[in-house]
């Protein structure tokens, strides 16, 4: 059990970036009126040190601590139902009334535990719930894939690009294909599925296959393996579209841009709404319109006029909710 005291760790305050996003969570139920935020807890299936998905959740927890001066707790490696139940019980005993499950694996157990702990608000990602004290937040990721696909298609020299996805159901995969073909109808899109978010060895082997087929831009849509895949592409003089984080720091001569999910900012927004009594229950959606999904920095390799074009298309999408291939 890792404990971060509300009055301690000045460094946590420096790491936290406070935002003023007026997040609109659509398609939700009624707000859960469980009272003010007392303490917050976080369960992650793997680690907070992965520098991608888990780290974003941890930074979000730190921002809650900094903003509300409350104790926060986290536990890593929370995958089995038994471990999750014991962790939640431990959090509740310590007075925690807002608990985040950092992934979709928490859907069944949080829906179940919500009845046992009616005074606790449970939050998880990319699942569904109709419980009055559970909020599921889904990322509408098709658009981010669409714009990433446009850029990959525009910058490919071989006219062959690839997606290294975790699962077939990922909406960013379909979006990437749509965007690449909107940019160039003749582009070839090669898709491989890792079947996991974090199987680095398999991802690297599949990436080698993509490279051998002439693919020169790859979208590694898995937060647990995208960094080594990008490093492998860099070693071969090829390009990538970053995923989850703005990964331009891995090399602006390899990362053309990134499809970013600002999960850390989302955590603070959820906590604020919970504390205000306006956090809605049920299944909710976030996208570019809430600035929770964004594009990362552009590589200087991308022509400036094309950068402007993409920025304008993103702006149009935020205003209309329609992608370029859907008309106005």
From TrEMBL:
CDD domains membership: PBP1_Med-like
Protein's cellular compartments: Cell membrane
InterPro entries: BMP_lipoprotein, Peripla_BP_I, PnrA-like
Record-linked Pfam families: Bmp
Residue ranges occupied by any ABC transporter substrate-binding protein PnrA-like domain in the UniProt entry: 38-325
Keyword annotations: Cell membrane, Lipoprotein, Membrane, Signal
Membrane topology: Lipid-anchor
UniProt similarity note: Belongs to the BMP lipoprotein family.
Protein name: Transcriptional activator of comK protein
């Amino acid at each position: 059990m890792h404990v971060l005291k509300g009055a301690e760790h000045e460094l946590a305050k420096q790491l936290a970036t406070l935002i003023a996003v007026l997040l609109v969570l659509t398609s939700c139920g009624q707000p859960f009126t469980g009272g003010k935020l007392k303490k917050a807890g976080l369960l992650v299936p793997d680690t907070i040190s992965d520098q991608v998905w888990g780290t974003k959740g941890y930074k979000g927890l730190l921002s809650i601590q900094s903003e509300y001066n409350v104790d926060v707790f986290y536990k890593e490696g929370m995958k089995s139902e038994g471990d999750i139940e014991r962790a939640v019980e431990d959090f509740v005993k310590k007075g925690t009334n807002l608990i985040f499950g950092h992934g979709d694996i928490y859907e069944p157990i949080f829906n179940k535990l919500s009845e046992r702990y009616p005074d606790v608000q449970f939050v998880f990602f990319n699942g569904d719930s109709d419980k009055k004290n559970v909020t599921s937040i889904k990322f509408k990721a098709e658009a981010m894939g669409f714009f990433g696909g446009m850029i990959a298609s525009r910058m490919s020299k071989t006219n062959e690009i690839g997606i290294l996805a975790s699962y077939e159901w990922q909406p960013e995969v379909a979006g990437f294909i749509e965007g690449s073909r909107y940019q160039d109808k003749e582009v070839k899109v090669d898709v491989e599925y890792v079947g996991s978010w974090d199987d680095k060895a398999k991802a690297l082997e599949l990436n080698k296959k993509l490279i051998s087929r002439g693919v020169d831009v790859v979208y590694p849509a898995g937060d647990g393996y995208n960094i080594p895949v990008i490093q492998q592409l860099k070693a071969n003089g090829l390009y990538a579209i970053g995923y989850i984080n703005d990964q331009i720091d891995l090399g602006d001569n390899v990362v053309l841009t990134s499809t970013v999910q600002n999960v850390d900012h989302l955590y603070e927004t959820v906590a604020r709404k919970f504390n205000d009594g306006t956090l809605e229950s049920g299944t909710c959606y976030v996208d570019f319109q809430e600035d929770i999904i964004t594009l990362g920095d552009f590589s200087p390799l991308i022509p400036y006029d094309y950068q402007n074009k993409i920025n304008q298309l993103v702006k149009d999408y935020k205003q209309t909710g329609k992608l370029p291939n859907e008309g106005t």
